Amino acid sequence: MLKNELRKARVAAGLTQEELAAKAGVSREYINYVERGKSDPTVKMFVKLCKAMGAYAPDVLKRVVPKAK
Question: Is residue 39 in a domain?
Fold first, then answer.
């Protein structure tokens, strides 16, 4: 699930929710909602969050979407 992969990427980047929120220009509450699955980020926000974490958005997305057979 996207929420799990975003949280894993944040933790791997060594960031707290507060630090990620500050880097991405959003509230900590928004990060919390996304990680709890209460809110889904837009594509633009997903990319913004990934950049703030230093993560490559397609790599994060690959872990969410299974490969087509």
Answer: yes
- Scan for tokens 């707290």, then name that residue: 16
Q: Which domain holds residue 31?
A: 2-62
Prediction pTM value: 0.88
DSSP state, 39?
S
As for how many domains the chain has, the answer is: 1
Cα separation, 65 vs 34, whole angstroms: 17
Residue 69, in any domain of the structure: no
CA 29 from centroid of its chain's CA atoms? 13
| pLDDT for residue 68 | 54
Task: Return the sign of the alpha-carbon dihedral for residues 16, 20, 25, 29.
Answer: negative
